[in-house]
Amino acid sequence: MAWNEQLYRDIMDGLQVDKEFITEAAGAFRWDLEQGLQGSEHSSLAMLPSYIGLPTGKETGEYLTLDFGGSNVRASLIRLSGNGKFAVSRQVRKSLVSEEYNLICAEATCEKLFDFLAQVIGEAIEGNQAQTYYLGHTFSFGSKQEDINTARLIKWAKEFAVPGVEGQDINALLTAALNRAGLDNVKPVAIINDTVAVLLATAYSYPDTRIGSIYATGHNTCYMEPMPDVGRPPCVLNMESGGFSKLVPTKWDIELDEASEQPGRQRLEKMVSGRYMGMLYSQLIRELFNLSTTPELSAADMSAIMGDEAEAARIVISLLGYTNSEIVEKLRELAKAITIRSARLVAATWAGTLWHLSGQGKIEPQHIAVDGSVYQLMPHVQENVRRALYEILGDEAGGIEPVLVKDGSSVGAAIAAAVASNGQ
Ligand code: BGC
């Protein structure tokens, strides 16, 4: 199979984002954020109010949570004990896609999807219909909220395509499905984005946290805005930063966007998130070897390739039928280049947000809440985020502490349910 060395060099060059590029990206992100705050149509950031502020740390009680935002859903029972303490007493996790069914594609139906969610919730409470449960729902798609419990899906992302859900009130759909399942005792009281959930969960233990980010299959960041609008109280804003569109894409980013479910949307997400890094890597490998079909490599495969030479050789054999050490090395370098670009671009958006929060002054030392498999597991990500923050912010980066949140989506949903049901 023909290897195109010139194309490889062009790709590797195209994936470089140097200090100047990321510093400009951070500035452009701040500009978009501030334009978005004023409702300008020139901003690519949605800046969606979440109708909730940061927790006091005193929220307590037991809550049911639903975490719905990727191909796995989770329902959990969470006990909040205050002062950052919580315990997960039960958790049920199910996939929305299996060999027998696919509940997220264009052929799926809204009713089947929500009936499945109700079933998972039913399992988490072991069918108990006698007790009232307040449910916090982490719904990880851009939604327009009207209050803490009403969120209308604007557009699917992450290649979800179920018809009949866009524009709908998500917790109303869930409530109807719970009723169909005979679970009237489960009361959805709050719905939040996953970025908001990780921010709430982290701020529960680290009150200096102002920014929450998901760096996983999808990507997005929210932050606590002290002045969201004239007359509105301080509120967490979901920026839907995956939609940031002011970066110059490479020719390959454009090709990937055009082949995706929603061309033109989620441009940053398509350059940085796990779902799309795997797609980009696969597409580049097809072009480099002039393959007739595109291999289906995921971000997890990229991690394996970067992390272990023997594993890399095994994957290369499965793709090409042979291996040699030079090709293995080049494919490892390619995976690394895509990953490092992703980490540096995400850091740029955080830096832009920190600049906004600091106004004209110094950036306050603070934690940044981060959740997600890419941040947690992909080689090279964490150190390159940190390096990029230093390149953009200089010494002020020293006070910034990204913290990896475990169970953030569920704990944040429990906190939101506590706030909404006055359990504080
Ligand atoms: C969604 C966001 C979400 C992010 C991370 C994106 O595709 O639009 O709402 O926060 O994924 O899950």
The ordered H/E elements are: HHEEEEHEEEHEHEEEHHHHHHEHHEH
Query: Helix count?
Result: 14
Task: Name the beta content range.
Answer: 15-25%
Give the C-alpha Rg: 22 Å
**Largest beta-sheet details:** 6 strands, mixed
Unreliable runs:
none
Q: How many discrete domains?
A: 2
The coarse silhouette is globular
Alpha-carbon distance between the termini?
A: 64 Å
Q: Please list the strands of the largest sheet in the order they lie side by side.
A: 1-11-10-9-12-13
What name is given to the CATH topology of the largest domain?
A: Hexokinase, domain 1
Average per-residue pLDDT, rounded, comes to: 95
- The secondary-structure class comes to alpha/beta
Record field, number of beta strands: 13
Q: Give the cofactors and ligands.
A: beta-D-glucopyranose
The percent range for helix content is: 40-55%
**Under the CATH scheme, which architecture of the largest domain would be assigned?**
3-Layer(aba) Sandwich
Query: What is the CATH level 1 assignment of the largest domain?
Result: Alpha Beta
